[in-house]
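Researcher: I'm preparing a figure for a lab meeting and need a structural model of a single chain. I don't have an experimental structure, so a prediction will have to do for now. The sequence is pasted below. Please return the structure as tokens so I can convert it later.
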Amino acid sequence: MDYLNYGNKVQQKPQGFGQQKVELNKNDFSFGNLNSQSVSSPVEPKTKDELMQLFPVPILISSYPFDYSKELEWIKKKPDSGISNALNKTSLNRQSEDTFILDNPEMSRVRQFIDSKLKEFVSNIMGSDAEMVITQSWFNRNGKGELHHEHTHPNSMVSGVWYPQINEKLPPIQFKTGQQIGMAFPIKKYNFYNSETFLLPLRKGELILFPSTLSHSVPINRSDEERISLSFNTWCKGSLGNIKSLTYLPLERCV
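Model: Understood. Here is the structure written out token by token.
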């Protein structure tokens, strides 16, 4: 695995998340005129090259602006169910028995915040006027020695995670590209184009939104402190697609 830490998000390099990690900053991804980095050539005059980034995957990061100590205490009291992986004898994260956590009145303020950011994500980033609905929501607990297996979120359009309890010593979420890399160059420096995985450290209270098809996982927690996150899925009201492009899906006909 090739790991990539986005430099401006890292306060302290996490420990125990793999052998090949690098810290980068925004300057490592400043593209445009590539002549200063191009291989010298006997051909003159030099050309002005431009690098394009096609089909980027959006991930929105937002900070929760209110104190949520009461909500966190309520979450800690909710029962969860552990899952044991007998195949390789690792312990998976524990999930709440309640899979509609955000439907509870105790979480109403957090839900309002998530709904507002979800609307911004769909409107400002995806360019859609679709009205999104949170379908299911649950919390995850990762104690020492526990991990979250790699997965996507089927039957969902936009997924998200809110982090009521996390810090730089706890494992970050790890995203994996859906593009298969058939051949591997001998890499001298990792970047967006040659890395298969991306570790995204997050701060306490932050929310992330991303396409539900994006594969993600959580490495083993090697800290004595418990990692707590709240995940959710979404779907939109009304219809999907477009009549003229023959992608129209009238959801009301499917009920």
